[in-house]
Amino acid sequence: MAYNRENKWKRIAEIQDIVLEYKKKDVPQKIIFEKYIRDKYHISYSCFNEYLGVPAKAQLKELQDKREDEERKQLNLFE
Question: Per residue of the chain (79 residues), what is the pLDDT tens digit?
């Protein structure tokens, strides 16, 4: 379980990267889940399939941009 949204998106992005890596080698998705995902991340196959449809990297970028904007606003308050 992720502690916050950022950790969740990082976890999903990591899983997606693993899948992309093995898909290039023509490994079936079910095998990727059984050999590389299930035991390490402790998720079900349906959750795994759900994660593959999530735009995690875009969500991470959005959170990062939001955090940078907030930091700039805070720095402007002290100047």
Answer: 456 888 999 999 999 999 999 999 999 999 999 999 999 999 999 999 999 999 999 999 998 898 888 888 776 766 6
Number of domains in the chain: 1
| Cα 52 to Cα 50: distance, rounded to the nearest angstrom | 5
Specify the pTM: 0.82
Domain span at residue 53 reads 5-78
**Beta strands in the chain, from DSSP E residues, in sequence order:** none
Neighbours of 45 (CB within 10 A): 13
Amino acid at 63: L
